[in-house]
Amino acid sequence: VHAASYAKFAPLAPGSIFSLFGRNLATSTLAASSVPLPKELSDARVTLGGVAVPLFYAGAGQVNGQVPFELTPGTKPSVLVTVKGVAAPPDEITLADAQPGIFTVDQSGSGQGAILDASYKLVSPANPIKAGDIVQVFCTGLGRTDPPVTSGTASPSSPVATVVNAVTATIGG
User: Fold this and answer.
1) Which is more confident, 110 or 60?
2) How far is the C-alpha of 142 from the C-alpha of 147, rounded, in Å?
3) Structure pTM?
4) In percent, how much of the chain has pLDDT > 70?
5) Is the peptide bond before 90 cis (omega within 30 degrees of 0)?
6) What distance in Å separates the CA atoms of residue 151 and residue 143, rounded to the nearest whole number?
7) What pLDDT digit, counting tens, does each position of 162-173 carry?
C-alpha cells in the first residue's frame, strides 16, 4: 500500500514509500539508521521487478521500503519478499508517473495531514495559516527528480533535486 494514504491497490510512483503488511515478514523489528538505506533488514529483502528495494523498516507484520527510481512508470513489476532465503508468493503492483499522498499526524493515512508552517509548527485550527504563508507538506509519491536521486540515498542539497512532474495544491477549492 501507499505508505502515506494506505490506498490499497493504487499505483505507486518511482521513489515512493510503500508499506507491505503480512505475517513473518522479518525475524525481528529494525529501522534503518543511516543512508544509503539497506537492501536487507532483519533478514528481510524485497525486490520489485528484480531490483532490490531500499528498506526503511522491517518487522514481523510490516515492511516499509522505497520504490526504486530505476523502475519504469506504466509497468507492472512483481513484488517478491524473501526472509532468510525463503520467498513468499510474488505479487504485482502498477507503477505510475506520480501518485501523491500526504502523511498524516497519527500515521493512519487519514485525518490531520503532516503539514507545518514556516516555524515548524503543525498547521491546525489552533494554528491556522493565511494566504501567502509558507507551508511544508510531508508527502510521498511525487515521482522522478531532476537531477535524478539514487534510490535509498538522501536528496542532494546542491543542486537541489526537484520533482519532474508539476505539483499543484488546492486549499478550500
Assistant:
1) 60
2) 14
3) 0.93
4) 100
5) no
6) 12
7) 999 999 988 888
Distance from the first to the final alpha carbon of the chain: 28
Amino acid of residue 87: A
CB-neighbour burial class of residue 93 (10 A; exposed 0-12, middle 13-18, buried 19+): buried
Spatial contact of 13 and 29, defined as CB atoms under 8 Å apart: no
Please give the Cα distance from 76 to 20 (Å, whole number): 16
The DSSP H or E segment spanning 146 is strand 145-146
Q: What is the mean pLDDT of the chain?
A: 95
Tell me how far apart the 2 most distant CA atoms of the chain are, in Å. Answer: 54
Grid cell 510474488 — which residue? 90
Mean pLDDT throughout 147-155?
95
Instruction: Retrieve residue 13's grid coordinates.
Output: 510512483
